[in-house]
Amino acid sequence: MKAVCWVGKHNVQVEEVPDPKILNRGDCILKVTSTAICGSDLHLYDGLIPSMMPGDILGHEFMGEVMEVGPDVKKLKVGDRVVVPFPISCGKCFHCTRQEFSLCDNGNPNGATTQKMYGHSPGGIYGYSHLMGGYDGGQAEFVRVPFADVGPLKVPSELKDEQVLFLTDVFPTGYMAAEACGIEPGDTVAVWGCGPVGQFAIRSALMLGAERVIAIDREPERLRMATEAGPEGRVEIMNFESTNVVEDLIERTGGRGPDRCIDAVGSEALGHGAGAVLDWAKMIARLQTDRPNVLRQAITACRKGGTISIPGEYTMIIDSINFGAAFNKGLTFKMGQTHLHRYLRPLLDRIMAGEIDPSFVITHRAPLRDAPKMYETFKHKRDECIKVVLNPAA
């Protein structure tokens, strides 16, 4: 079969690889009908995530048709059309029973290695390094899905792939980020980053009752898409290259600061000024792995007693964070990989009810063979690229 393989930093290729096989009795094999490139995939592309090996198959946003099931699979049958959540979860461990699916104790076969880095290991993730299990990803014609009775969700035939594909990651990720804020009536929510996760966080914040959202980015097409999220006046935009973000946020909120702040950027935050330059220098010198410019701004700008939600991925080490400000302002932090399984059915219901059509975020469609070009396009935001969907059959 053909699959998108990581070859090295800034180098992915479409290669012929062996077809997947049933390895465990609870597996299924999926024929992938749609798959997407995620912003998190760019961390792999940029070489920020350790333990990648040449030939690793990428991709954790995918859906398709069940082609084969293991003998212990009870809930799926050949021909079912399903979306697959990106965390690999057993459904039975301590964390899964608490609906903390991304923290599954049994989803990462390489957990002992990851534990040495993080203290404890999270669950596995498709196509996302050997630290997260070494699983083949879904940017391929076929993929093996472990714990097939736990993760995949059957989707109605009347919905197109593009309407449900983003249930696999970015829609629930943006929704959980907004939900974690504990939004109350009248709240102002600031969202850093208007990529796909940020776009869904903006819309989810409005769904959950935010009075006002301030969307922060520098790309005109992203800011324009953000303004389309809700009624006129509910979403304001801010270009971080033309203003002092913290001062502007405090001024727009009458001196108080946003009630809730969402960092939908994470480890590769851009910025200007001495702090941003120092972040780059520290990364080059390997004194830190991530650039926390957005996190600094959120801590400084957020109102006293407010909440900071972090769906943007951080990989390992950051410094120069004013944690004293967070402590003395009484801030609450919520963060982590999305417990995606708990959101599949409720968000599918919202799609079915016509509350949202997630396909709004797609700007580029391409056959799987064009993946190397699309990674470059997405990485450098060429041609107003916000979200890429790949078709393995094209």
Question: How would you describe this structure in keywords?
Answer:
7-stranded mixed beta sheet, Quinone Oxidoreductase, Chain A, domain 1, alpha/beta, 2 domains, 13 helices, 6-stranded parallel beta sheet, Rossmann fold, 394 residues, globular
Structure report:
This protein is an alpha/beta fold and 394 residues long. It folds into 2 domains: 2-169 and 338-391, Medium-chain alcohol dehydrogenases, catalytic domain (Quinone Oxidoreductase, Chain A, domain 1, Alpha-Beta Complex); 172-335, Rossmann fold (3-Layer(aba) Sandwich), CATH 3.40.50. The chain is built from 13 helices and 18 strands. Strands 3, 5, 6, 9, 10, 17 and 18 form a 7-stranded mixed beta sheet that branches. A hairpin with a 2-residue loop joins strand 1 (2-8) and strand 2 (11-16). It is globular.
Number of domains: 2
For CATH, the homologous superfamily of the largest domain is named as Medium-chain alcohol dehydrogenases, catalytic domain
Overall morphology:
globular
Count of individual helical segments:
13
- Report the major sheet: 7 strands, mixed
* Helix-strand category: alpha/beta
Give the tally of β-strands.
Answer: 18
The low-pLDDT segments are none
Class of the largest domain in CATH? Alpha Beta
Q: Over all CA atoms, what is the radius of gyration?
A: 20 Å
What oligomeric state is this? single chain
Mean pLDDT metric: 94
The span between the termini is 14 Å
Q: Based on the coordinates given, report the CATH architecture of the largest domain.
A: Alpha-Beta Complex
Helix content: 25-40%
As a percent range, the share of strand residues is 15-25%
CATH-defined fold name of the largest domain? Quinone Oxidoreductase, Chain A, domain 1
